[in-house]
Design goal:
Umud Fragment, subunit A, 20 strands, four-stranded antiparallel beta sheet, 366 residues
């Protein structure tokens, strides 16, 4: 009797029938979605710059890749969400996730830690209505690390009493005094994109160097930086307690940035500074303050030990940035990744042929 070990049965041959075109497309789409989701989670994620808070380092219309492997990717906290979405399904107001399951979140090892002046993408901390990994993504520059003491004096940042190196293209709000209308092309020639008309001329956000050049124009009377004085108080700045802290965005602090494992004494001042952190980001079950005393999980505490690191973030457009000066610290578990490089840049005010900013292609972000 002869056996053909290489001859397949009719049943096996039927099972190997050629897939339909629809099935092939479906398999390809599923594979692509899974691959993109893994890449987005572990390695790189694409973002775009929607506001001028980081100008001129980053421009509105810049498309960039953010590295997850620099600081280490986070494990998913909200597993029940549609792949490749964030908060809502594309072009709708329908939530793209279910918060029925919330997993403990961990960070996988990275090959570096956040350094001073890194440009960092993070989840916006005060957005408490969303799970951590689904809060709105913000991008700012890290100016203060865990354990640092930070202050701002006349717009200059000092960390541990030493002046911090300023970004090369840092912008401030300037008052352009003129009795004439200035054409848009003039602002464009001086690379001023963030400006508005006033009764006395224009308010423009630009660098001090460009402001000096703009002042030389014959129809400009003067250009002056608009900043707060040291004796002025802005009740909007964190921790929003002007009775204890008479600060503003240009004269801020000194403030100590929480560090994991460090214990602080709790008094009127430290409770005002760190209650938001202890209540909203430290994963305590219950925090309350009564008669000047803090209670954590129904126990009165006179000291508190922080459970994670925190960072202080600011925008390079110093007078047009909602940052840590206004809402506080960024918890370590809110950090998404390091802004890596620009892969596309589009100017929405230009015509079709001039819309692409070719010089910004593949620029590393510093």
């Amino acid at each position: 009797m002869k056996f053909d070990f290489f001859k397949k049965s009719e049943k096996e041959q039927e099972e190997k029938k050629k897939k339909s075109v629809a099935r092939e497309w479906l398999d390809a789409i599923v594979f692509a979605v899974i691959a993109a989701t893994i890449i987005r989670w572990l390695f790189l994620e694409a973002f775009t710059i929607p506001t001028p808070s980081m100008e001129k380092s980053l421009l509105v219309g810049d498309f960039l890749f953010v590295s997850k492997i620099h600081y280490g990717p986070r494990t998913p906290k909200t597993p029940l969400q549609m792949p490749l979405t964030h908060q809502k399904i594309w072009w709708t107001e329908i939530p793209s996730y279910l918060d029925w399951i919330q997993l403990p979140q961990y960070r996988l090892p990275g090959f570096t830690s956040i350094k001073q002046n890194d440009v960092v993408v993070f989840n916006y901390p005060p957005e408490l209505q969303y799970p951590v990994d689904l809060k709105t993504n913000y991008i700012k520059r890290c100016v203060g690390l865990p354990g640092d003491s930070l202050k701002v004096v006349d717009t200059q940042i000092y960390v541990n009493d030493k002046p911090l190196d300023n970004p090369e293209k840092m912008e401030f709000r300037h008052n352009i005094v003129t009795n004439q209308d200035i054409k848009a092309r003039v602002f464009k020639n001086y690379d001023i994109t963030d400006y508005e008309r006033t009764n006395y001329g224009y308010i423009a956000h630009t660098t001090p160097e460009i402001a000096k050049e703009f002042e030389k124009l014959p129809f400009v009377q003067r250009v002056e930086v608009l900043k707060m004085n040291g004796d002025q108080v802005n009740p909007r700045v964190y921790p929003k307690n002007s009775q204890l802290f008479s600060w503003n965005e240009d004269y801020y602090g000194a403030i100590w940035i929480p560090k994991e494992g460090v214990t602080i004494d709790l008094d009127e001042s430290t409770i005002a500074l760190y209650r938001d952190v202890i209540e909203n980001y430290e994963h305590n079950d219950e925090v309350r303050v009564e008669n000047g005393k803090m209670y954590v999980d129904n126990e009165e505490v006179s000291q508190y030990t922080f459970k994670q690191d925190y960072y202080f973030m600011m925008g390079d457009n110093r007078h047009n940035s909602e940052d840590s000066r206004f809402w506080g610290f960024v918890p370590e578990d809110h950090v998404v990744g390091k802004a890596f490089f620009i892969w596309l840049s589009l100017d929405k005010y230009e015509s079709f042929l001039k819309k692409i900013r070719w010089k910004r292609f593949f620029n590393l972000i510093h």
